[in-house]
Structures are given as C-alpha cells and as structure tokens.
Design goal:
By secondary structure, this protein is mainly beta. It contains 1 helix and 10 strands, in the order ββββββαββββ.
Length: about 150
Amino acid sequence: MKIESPRPLAVAPLGTSSDLKLGETVIAIGNALGYEHTVTVGIISSLVRDVEAENQSYRNLLQTDAAINPGNSGGPLINLDGEVIAINVAIRANAQKIGFAIKIDDARQYTAQLLDIRRRSRTWHGLFTRDVKNHKQRHLVVVGFE
C-alpha cells in the first residue's frame, strides 16, 4: 500500500501478544460504522478463541469487550503503552461487545510467510524475509532479494 502524504506519518509501535493477560485493558481504533477516528476501551476476555464466521475459520484470536463494529476491522487493538497488540477482525453479530482480534505475533508471522513466498499468482517479488522479535526489537527484516 502506498499513501501520499505532505508530511511524514507516525508509525504505531508494534508490541507483542505473548505476554497479554486476561482482564488487561485494551483500546480498539477504527472507523466504526463510517465514523472516523472511533476509539473504544475494553478488556481482554479470552486469550485463545476459535471463531467460525461466514464460511471462514479464525484460530487463536483474542476476545475483547472493546466495541468493535463494522469499519473497525483491520484497525489496531492497542495496549495502554500505545503498542499494537492485535488487529481487529470480527464481531459476534448477535451479541453486544464481543469482538475478536488477530494477535500481532501471529499477524507478523503470517506477513513474513506471505512475503517469503517468492512466486504468488504468477507475480515475482523476490524478497527473502525474517521476523525479528525480542525484548528490544520487533520488525520484519528483508534479508535478501533476487
């Protein structure tokens, strides 16, 4: 994705989802129902939840009671340090305040795997990547290209 901006954009720091606890306060950000810059607060209700929704299966999601509505999907779920710890992905449609998010550690691994596939749909990107995560560093490294 490319974003044209007249000024440098701030980057949200990535946290880790490996040390989350039940009851931890989280903040969901998005454009809920078309309202820009929506922010809601809740807690982590479950650390591991498998969800079946509209012919899709999601595994190992976080569950939160922070209000996630249509338009929040793809937005960050952040901790109180302002670090992205998950990506808002789904809600339980017939309930209130039951939302789900992909853990950031899982999202980072999926991204690294997708980028490391050198051929996809007859497209060649040629990148070799490695996911780096330790107590001081959290980023995706391009280790080579062809």
